[in-house]
Amino acid sequence: MEPAIRLCGITVRYGNGDGGLVAVADVDLDVMPGEVVSIVGKSGCGKTTLLKVIAGLVKPVRGELVLNGHKANTPHRGVGMLFQSPLLLPWRTVIKNILLPIEVLNGDVRSYLSRAYELIEKVGLKGFENSYPWELSGGMQQRVALCRALIHKPSTLLLDEPFSALDAITREEMWGLLQEIIEYERCTTVLVTHDVREAVLLSDRVVVISGRPGRVRSEVRVDFRRPRGLDIQYTKEFNDYVAMIKSLIGD
Ligand SMILES: Nc1ncnc2c1ncn2[C@@H]1O[C@H](COP(=O)(O)OP(=O)(O)OP(=O)(O)O)[C@@H](O)[C@H]1O
Ligand SMILES: [Mg+2]
Predict the structure, then answer these.
(1) 208 Cβ partners below 8 Å, 6+ apart?
(2) What is the model's pTM?
(3) What are residue 182's DSSP bridge partners?
């Protein structure tokens, strides 16, 4: 099977000359279709940069991005992105925020309405279609942002610390929801997180990046079947994975 995402010798440099900075160097990474991969590492090691490379938003100075066997070097529609803050437009209702990418892509908004309602129901926001973002809690806003990321049916979901601004209980709820959504949408997923427990709970594989420049230090395969119940966090195997990955980050 061909990888959905292949990063091949990726090196990214910001700026030129003495003021320039190599953010990531020689990164090789394959993500298989439907796989969930987390990227962890210390602040500034280049995690967001790698997501931007996958989205085609940052051009590497060396190396290439291959998506489903095809070279990609410009922004493309195959990804949906979710960030730390929901970044919703306050003057637009929930449904209009979710449909925004279709408008931006000059798509036929009406033909995506049923998809939008389906996603709203899936994330548990039925009845809030016509609410404004400021009428919703932080967790609800992040659910809206997740629907917006998925509205155009991307094959890949890119998540950059999506739950770090939420309280612990809401975050755990979102772990359950995200697993349901990933299974339902069958999307390939790359998650950047500082939370090692989150990485172990959600992913098939955890990639540890060292800095700086960011390089792949090691990869840990997490051998639990997906979807995973939250109770798994209290098992010895789970905590062994967490301890091992923390020590790989901390070295
Ligand atoms: N647009 C940019 N221009 C110049 N330098 C940048 C730019 N974006 C990131 N950098 C630098 O590249 C390095 C990697 O940044 P990046 O945002 O990828 O790190 P990160 O691992 O996501 O960090 P964090 O965990 O704090 O979000 C940092 O040193 C940062 O200052
Ligand atoms: Mg970042």
Answers:
(1) 40, 41, 216, 217, 218, 219, 220, 245, 248, 249
(2) 0.96
(3) none
Question: Cα separation of 106 and 189, whole Å?
Answer: 26
20: β partners: none
Cβ(32)–Cβ(38) below 8 Å: no
**Pairing mode of beta strands 5-14, 62-67:** antiparallel
Residue 49: both structure tokens together: 């940069």
Nearest residue (CA) to ligand 1, atom 16: 46
| The pair of three-digit structure tokens given for residue 28, joined into one six-digit string | 């090789």
Residue 84 near residue 51 (C-beta atoms within 8 A): no
Ligand 1 lining (C-beta closer than 6 Å):
14-15, 21, 23, 43-49
Nearest CA to ligand 1 atom 31: 44
Give per-residue pLDDT as tens, 35-70: 999 999 999 999 999 999 999 999 999 999 999 999
Q: Where are the domains of the chain?
A: 88-144
Count of C-beta atoms within a 10 Å radius of residue 137: 11
Q: Which residue CA neighbors atom 28 of ligand 1 most closely?
A: 44
